């Protein structure tokens, strides 16, 4: 196993001082102190949920607008017919079109974007991209709000910090909820908004503990355990 650097060990010492899992608010305070890299690290939330995504009725998937954004620029591709293209461009989409981009993704595996938004009437063409976009979590989907006729509003929301999330096949959910440079209160409010939405999406068929484990960390820092009961009270 590779030896951890001095900065990581110092951050780990800080986390090790906490004997018990921290409340969400305490964890957001500590996570800023563990950000010691020479770049603005992301702040990540990792959840292990009490669901079995092999069953369709236990798939946890959705989107949420983080109150303070993600702290990073999001590149948006809009796939739509000409009638909606001006609207997308005016809203700030980075790439707008249809046939040429469908072809480029199919033939060249072009993936220079973070989010794809499409109108319902072009999903017949977009569906052909499932093999490329699906495994990367980029396929437009009505459940996440990325298949819509309200192109302008959706582009603006995504640019402002709306994120999509989807549980993996093991029941884990990972997302970035901001940057270490954010004030503690903004990290807390973003984390709370995300967890509130995940709680809202709890499948009726999920039994027992829903939040099995919750950790907060920076890109280069150690994980900080978050007390599940504090999250349940904060997120309601």
UniProtKB/TrEMBL annotation:
Transmembrane segments: none annotated. One of its GO terms (biological process) is translation. This is Large ribosomal subunit protein uL1. Pfam families: Ribosomal_L1 (PF00687). Keywords: Repressor, Ribonucleoprotein, Ribosomal protein, RNA-binding, rRNA-binding, Translation regulation, tRNA-binding. Binds directly to 23S rRNA. The L1 stalk is quite mobile in the ribosome, and is involved in E site tRNA release. Protein L1 is also a translational repressor protein, it controls the translation of the L11 operon by binding to its mRNA. GO terms for molecular function: rRNA binding; structural constituent of ribosome; tRNA binding. It comes from Longibacter salinarum. One of its GO terms (cellular component) is large ribosomal subunit. Gene3D superfamilies: 3.30.190.20, 3.40.50.790. NCBIfam families: rplA_bact (TIGR01169). Belongs to the universal ribosomal protein uL1 family. Part of the 50S ribosomal subunit. CDD domains: Ribosomal_L1 (cd00403). Signal peptide: none annotated.
């Amino acid at each position: 196993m590779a030896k951890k650097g001095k900065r990581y060990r110092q951050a780990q010492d800080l986390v090790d001082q906490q004997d018990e899992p921290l409340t969400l608010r305490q964890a957001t305070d500590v996570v800023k102190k563990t950000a010691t890299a020479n770049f603005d690290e992301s702040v990540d939330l990792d959840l292990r949920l009490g669901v079995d995504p092999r069953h369709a009725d236990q798939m946890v998937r959705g989107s949420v607008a983080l109150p303070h954004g993600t702290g990073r620029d999001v590149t948006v591709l809009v796939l739509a017919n000409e009638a909606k293209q001006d609207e997308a461009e005016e809203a700030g989409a980075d790439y707008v079109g249809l046939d040429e981009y469908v072809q480029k993704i199919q033939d060249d595996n072009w993936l220079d974007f973070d989010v794809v938004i499409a109108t319902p009437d072009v999903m017949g063409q977009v569906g052909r991209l499932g093999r490329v976009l699906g495994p990367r979590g980029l396929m437009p989907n009505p459940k996440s709000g990325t298949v819509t006729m309200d192109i302008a509003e959706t582009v603006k929301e995504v640019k402002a910090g709306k994120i999509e999330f989807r549980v993996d096949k093991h029941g884990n959910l990972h997302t970035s909820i901001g940057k270490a440079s954010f004030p503690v209160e903004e990290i807390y409010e973003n984390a709370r908004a995300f967890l509130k939405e995940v709680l809202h999406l709890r499948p009726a068929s999920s039994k027992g503990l829903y939040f099995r484990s919750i950790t907060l960390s920076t890109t280069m820092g150690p994980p900080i355990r978050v007390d599940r009961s504090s999250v349940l009270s904060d997120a309601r």
